[in-house]
Amino acid sequence: MSKDIEQKLREAIVKSKMSRYKISKLSGVGEAQLSLFVNGKRTLTLPVAAKLAKVLGLELVEKKRTQKEKSKRWKNPG
Predict the structure, then answer these.
(1) What is the pLDDT tens value at each position of the chain, 78 positions in all?
(2) Pick from 39, 46, 33: which is nearest to 10 by CA?
């Protein structure tokens, strides 16, 4: 999972008005797993991240890339 996505999810959990206990219960993600993730000691699978995002009201949206960004991606370094 992308570090940017992980960081955004951590921030959303920390800033949430819900307790970690409540987030855990509503998402079905164990409290220990949630705590380890928030403290940067564990990553999440995409299905688990999706459960947390749903509880937190988050949505993954595609960012439109500029032509310059598109060309950089496929540029051959050799």
Answers:
(1) 667 889 999 999 999 999 999 999 999 999 999 999 999 999 999 999 999 999 999 988 887 877 776 666 655 555
(2) 39
Which residue carries 């992980």 as its tokens? 6
Closest CA to 2 of 10, 54, 51: 10
Where along the chain do its domains lie? 3-56
Task: For residues 39 and 77, give the distance between their C-alpha atoms in angstroms, rounded to a whole number.
Answer: 37
Question: How far apart are the C-alpha atoms of 49 and 53, rounded to whole Å?
Answer: 6
Separation of first and last alpha carbons in the chain: 28
Q: Read off the DSSP letter of residue 66.
A: P
Q: In whole angstroms, what is the distance from residue 47 CA to residue 78 CA? A: 37
Instruction: Provide DSSP, 36-65.
Output: HHHTTS----HHHHHHHHHHHT----PPPP
